[in-house]
Amino acid sequence: MSTITNFQTIDPFLDIVDDDAHAQNYIRMLLRRVFWEIAETGLLRLNIRIQQRNGRKTLTTVQGLPVEYDQKRILKVLKKDFACNGTIVKDGEMGDVIQLQGDQRIKVMEFLTSQLPIQKKLVKIHGF
């Protein structure tokens, strides 16, 4: 008969410590990447997302605008140019998020890259 090696004794706490160290290294790696992006570019990636509401209704969210820009004035111009309604939502994790009615992803990206000194490579469009 063959020997079965699956019945070796395993210390369950040893595995947890190894996984915890691996998780801490992963978190450190992510933090280095984020702070490297901030140090190199001066700002984080700008995220433009779309969320499905009821039926064909959608919301466009813009997250990650630098603090130095007045988001209320940007929102006012976006609402007027795109003929849609919008608001600024204060989120604990994401900071201030601009919400616009409708699918405005491409228009918002073109506006932000043409009117503000934001590079296209820093803008990430998510959705569909």
Describe this structure in words.
By secondary structure, this protein is an alpha+beta fold. 41% of the residues lie in helices and 23% in strands. It is built from 3 helices and 5 strands, in the order H-E-E-H-E-E-H-E. It has helices spanning 12-41, 71-82, 105-115, and strands spanning 46-52, 58-63, 86-91, 95-101, 123-125. The protein has a 5-stranded mixed beta sheet with strand order 3-4-2-1-5, with helices on one face. Strand 1 (46-52) and strand 2 (58-63) form a beta hairpin. The longest helix has 30 residues, at 12-41. The model has no long low-confidence stretch (mean pLDDT 80).
Strand-pairing-aware structural class: alpha+beta
Unreliable segments of 5+ consecutive residues: none
Alpha plus pi helix count? 3
Tell me roughly what share of residues is in helical segments: 40-55%
In spatial order, strands of the major sheet run 3-4-2-1-5
Biggest beta sheet summary: 5 strands, mixed
Approximately what portion of the residues adopt beta-strand conformation? 15-25%
Count the strands? 5
Distance between the termini: 56 Å
* H-E order: HEEHEEHE
Broad shape: elongated
**Which radius of gyration do the C-alpha atoms yield?**
22 Å
Could you report the average pLDDT, rounded to the nearest whole number?
80
Keywords:
128 residues; 5 strands; alpha+beta
Write a brief structural summary:
The protein is of the alpha+beta class and 128 residues long. 41% of the residues lie in helices and 23% in strands.
